[in-house]
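Lab meeting, action items carried over

1. Structure of the two-component assembly. Owner: GW. Status: complete.
Input record:
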Amino acid sequence: MRAFYGTELPNPLMLGTAQYPSPAILEQAFRASGAGVATVSLRRESGAGQTFWSMIRDLGVLVLPNTAGCHTVKEAVTTAHMAREVFGTPWIKLELIGHTDSLQPDVFGLVEAARILTEDGFQVFPYTTDDLIVGERLLAAGCEVLMPWGAPIGSGRGLNNEYALRAMRAEFPDVPLVVDAGIGLPSHAARAMELGYDAVLLNTAVARAGDPVEMACAMALAIQAGQLAHRADPIEARDMASASTPVIGKAFLS
Amino acid sequence: MTLWSVIGAGVAGLAVATELVARGAQVQVFDPSGPPGPHGCSWWAGGMLAPWCEYENAEEPVLRLGQQAIGWWEAHTTVNRCGTLVLANPRDLPDLRRFARRTEGFTEISHAEITELEPDINAFSKGLHFPDEAHLDPRRALSDLYRGLIDKGVAFHRKPAPAGLENAIDCRGLHAREVLHDLRGVKGEMLVIRAPDVALTRPIRLLHPRMPLYVVPRSDHVYMLGATMIESEDSGRITARSMLELLSAAYALNPAFGEAEVLEIGVDLRPAFPDNLPRIRRLGRTIYANGLYRHGYLLAPALAQGVADLALNDTHTELVDEDRD
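Predicted assembly:
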């Protein structure tokens, strides 16, 4: 199992904490699903969300603060520093938005911010695209984890470019990889794990589901299924039928 | 006869006092800030009595208890029973379908039906109409309750309640945090604007994945635009981003909002418990009624009735979650 900056995740579901109907439902979603990591945004709350943040700390899971909503390197770096102070962790999910409508990451600013933060002792989890070269640059900047998107944030479209995600897995065999964003259904999350990804990060698909607690459980089960399936070395797909019972003695040539 | 002391003259305190008086109890009210005003978060509310719309993202009691609110308020203030219109831009239609799946009490309406209801809303192909919902002007409602209580001889003391008070009902919202440790503040930001070129008769909700908006008409082309929901306890300021989002959404509803005059900017914190539902707690000699969250006007009547049931009849309704010495 690939470790995230030396930490093995107790559960490969990373669950966001925004948009739930209430903090009580958020808490139930975490408890019921066993999610291993809680991501939390600091941008809008800017120093005054103490009650909410202490609720997140009380969940008893690893906390991955994020820089959601930041559009510039400077904003992201400032937010990361605040996050380190509030949560006492060097982990930071670096999110640098380049496009308002698609919330696509600004990969150029991302590499720069990743370098600044790494030099400052942060352990950066960059939200990136599935571009291999950007991935290389992020690793060169000091990142030891990559988090490519499945689809735009909140779109629920699943894995838009499975080929690219597969190529990324093959290109970076030793790097922990997380599909971050775009997951709508448990089958999407399972697929990401079948591709050999180490974790899945999602928020909207659970928080905005009719029953967030049930959906969180469904995601956790799917992720576990995908992880087991990947470890179990699935068979290759083939064009012709291959009987699972012996055919000797049957008149298959007749 | 027992003298009940209601502490706090926001929507919770005034509704509780009104309900107690209506049941023949003797009541006095304490609030160091005086009569209802900008110091209380219910001053900044939208005043929508919209249990079906709220149910889209709330627990079942909001739907059931909220439906009692319209009649209660009609007995005390002016209520506009014009329904609610819920709209989404074409690319956000999945959000409209989701909204429809998650609640009840509406009909789906077409562009022609939308413009028939609201001639100044022209850019939307589909909407949801909630005909049984209503709205009121929160400041007028607070003032009507306040005057009603004065007329009935209720004394208002402009000072903090004395310590050790018997038969106290604490309705101080977030100020009661030192006792109610699971209470938190949820920041809301709103604007009041005057748009002479826009005529709307009912609250309109515009769905958006990141910046949902509602517009509540007051009289004389004045509109309340609201409201952000931020897990923050910083009530001192509105951010440029929030203001930009509120105004952009209003502009998308009708570009004539671009010419509006900005009359007021409101920022405050909604008192909320972890499940965002209100609570009644009797701890020793004090009954606490709190946690109305974004449902101040929608659930204050049910909260007030629950408090009166506990105080006068020792009956536990569903909002009571703790009763101990």
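2. GW to write a short summary for the group page. Key points so far: Residues 3-46+137-183+275-313 of chain B form a domain with the Rossmann fold fold (CATH 3.40.50.720). Chain B is about 30% helix and 25% strand.
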